[in-house]
Design a protein that fits this description.
mainly alpha, about 75% helix, transmembrane, membrane, transmembrane helix
Amino acid sequence: MRSYIAFIKKEWIDYLRNYKILIIIIVFAILGIISPLSAKFMPEIIREFMPADISIQLTEPSNIDSWTQFFKNISQMGTIVAIIIFSGMMSHEYEKGTLVNLITKGLSRKTVVAAKYTVVVLIWTISYWICFFIASIYTRYYFPEGKTTGLFLAVFSFYFFGIMLFSIVMLGSISFKNIYGSLLFTAGFTVILFIINMFPKAIKWNPLQLANSNIKILQGILTFYDIKYSFVIMMLISLCALRLSIRIFNEKSL
């Protein structure tokens, strides 16, 4: 346990020194601000740039539009930035050989994997919920009369999807000794999820549902019982990815 905590501190300090934590938090904070702002002012922007001879009916924005922008920005920008930053969590160790001395002195390889993943999840948690709370404050300000049923289920669904995704990033980072291999591995995994989603009977089991059904949850179309199997598969994939990461790392030469 002491070595686990000590390695977590070491990882945390490294992320602080290279400003990666600051970068992720700033990116997510900005996304939290612009999500409700874009929902509020997008109709006005569209009207401003539309040709005078074209008429278009635009509905008044609502809090649902704000949260739609939130999930869109998080999935298309926030998560991608985090994946790019975390994809090098092991490649730098391989290149510099910084783990050789630690492991030869008795540090367990299992501890290395567990500590690195813990720090990644911690940074993801802080950044994600900062983004959510900022978006929530601005959404309540601009759309005070709006009500959202199932908001926390929708938000937690994507949060846990991110946790699973970073277990895949961990597996890719350990399996390949460069950032590009890790990124391609994660991208390949995501593509597989989209392919599975093409089969209607497989949708309820696909963890991708936790990331792309958020608006349906907000609208009351889906409930926890509709996505419960996705949660189960998400947890199984996360555990299997971490277990496989430890196994591969134990056999990997440093």
